[in-house]
Amino acid sequence: MKIYKFGGASIKEPKLLDNIINIINPKEKNLWIVVSAIGKTTNSLENLLNSYINNQNDKFSILESIINFHKNYIKESFKNNSKNTLTLIQVLFNSLEKLISQKPEKDYDILYDEIVSYGELMSSIIFSEYLKIKGLNNTLIDAREIIITNSNHRDAKLIWPEAQKRINKLNKNSDKIFITQGFIGANQDNISTSLGREGSDYTASALAYLLNAESVTIWKDVPGIMNADPNCFDFAEKLDELSYYEAIELAFYGAKVIHPKTIKPLENKNIPLYVKSFINPQNEGTIIKNLNYKLDLIPVFILKQNQILISISPKDFSFIVEENMSKIFGLFAKYKTKLNISQNSALSFSASIDDNNRNFEKLIEELQEEFFVKYNSGLELITIRYYTEESINKMTKNRKILIEQRSRKTARFLVKMR
Ligand code: ASP
Ligand code: MG
Q1: Which of 48, 165, 300, 411 could form a disulfide with 385 if both were Cys (CB 3.0 to 4.6 A apart)?
Q2: How far is it, in rounded angstroms, from Cα 288 to Cα 275?
Q3: How far apart are CA 54 and CA 76, in angstroms?
Q4: Rounded mean pLDDT of the chain?
Q5: Does the beta carbon of 14 lie inside 6 Å of ligand 1?
Q6: Per-residue pLDDT, 294
Q7: Ligand nearest to the CA of 45
């Protein structure tokens, strides 16, 4: 049994659906397919949510553009066969419209998951119906019936034994292709949850674990995992293989290749992960698996843009010691703010965070009760695994270094463009 995952980019235009049909071997019966929302739909749904919560009057026009986008997508790909799929998807449009017509009374994070999950609900219907008209019979499974999570909305954790029970109860007729949504799940009260942005990879690996799959393939618009983001650097090269450990490290430092949580479930059951191009499916891609030899890689560059450096020092002249640190970390955790790089001296603690945090002001305010706080935005965090002096010079040239850290394999720089 295999698992395939198709991300938003792989289905962003109707004509790409035929690539996918070509990838799926019609004889391949025992296959699970995980799909993300089409293109940038999740971003549009986030805009819809914000407009709805802030009671802006553009909420219905945002909804309309999401609806039209999907309707046009269906008409273009299904042509004369559109009717059935349009009827199926209309049910979702109606319930989304009803939802945003009510007063937003629930907690932001709960509403977020409820609204954003429509992206995958819509794409999975389209995907499943398209396969059907192309003769690939399949069963669509609502991920919210199997991916059972805790109630930590927007970053929910699987409740593995419960998910396993649900999977075991399914009638998994091995003759079939199963399709389900990535990224979304539900808590034990059937309330929608999500696994964090870009979380569909994680769904694929969780399913692989739960179903004891033989492999997972993530189909992407790049040839595999690269040593740098090909959109930012022209020297980007494909890496042929990685160990689970190395893949976790790269994802942790912010490589956008795979969702950081993806690897662990696969490692636990020794399931290989392939990252391949849906444009050139015959090419090798990257394989991530257990390696019993040491990897000696070329330098791998990971760039995180839009960083804010926060510098914190106690008002009462106390040192930055355990007690202050636990207060500071407690506040970062409270506001769900991830620290990308941090450093402390006797009198101050500094850390960079992503500049997209809607809790930023609240965090700063609460820190300011006991600390002097300064911050500096517009920074970049560069990580180089397997660094060489040459690779460091290449990346830090013309940049002012604000924080620098080196370990045996990894060099990291928080920098400002000059
Ligand atoms: N659609 C979700 C997102 O864009 C999940 C995913 O693509 O993996 O974040
Ligand atoms: Mg996506």
Answers
A1: 300
A2: 8
A3: 34
A4: 94
A5: no
A6: 84
A7: 1
Length of the chain counted residue by residue:
418
- Long-range contact set of residues 20-24: C-beta below 8 Å, sequence gap at least 24: 20/219, 20/278, 21/130, 21/131, 21/134, 21/136, 22/281, 23/219, 23/278, 23/281, 24/131, 24/136, 24/177
Per-residue model confidence as pLDDT tens digits over 374-383: 999 999 999 9
> How close is the Cα of 389 to the center of ligand 1, in Å?
36
Q: How far is the CA of 145 from the centre of ligand 1 (A)?
A: 19
Boundaries of CATH 3.30.2130.10 in the chain?
A: 300-417
Q: Could you list which residues have their CB under 5 Å from ion ligand 2?
A: 8, 36
Q: What would the mean pLDDT of 47-57 be, rounded to a whole number?
A: 95
pLDDT of residue 325: 93
pLDDT tens-digit map of 324-357: 999 999 999 999 899 999 999 989 999 999 998 8
CA of 414 to the centre of ligand 1 (A): 27
Domain 2-213, CATH number (from 1.10.10.10, 3.40.1160.10, 3.30.70.20, 3.40.50.10260): 3.40.1160.10
Fold topology of 300-417: VC0802-like (3.30.2130)
Query: Which residues belong to CATH 3.40.1160.10 in the chain?
Result: 2-213
Mean pLDDT, rounded, for 1-30: 91
User: Which amino acid residue places its CA nearest to atom 7 of ligand 1?
Assistant: 198
**Any ligand 1 atom below 6 A from CB of 117:** no
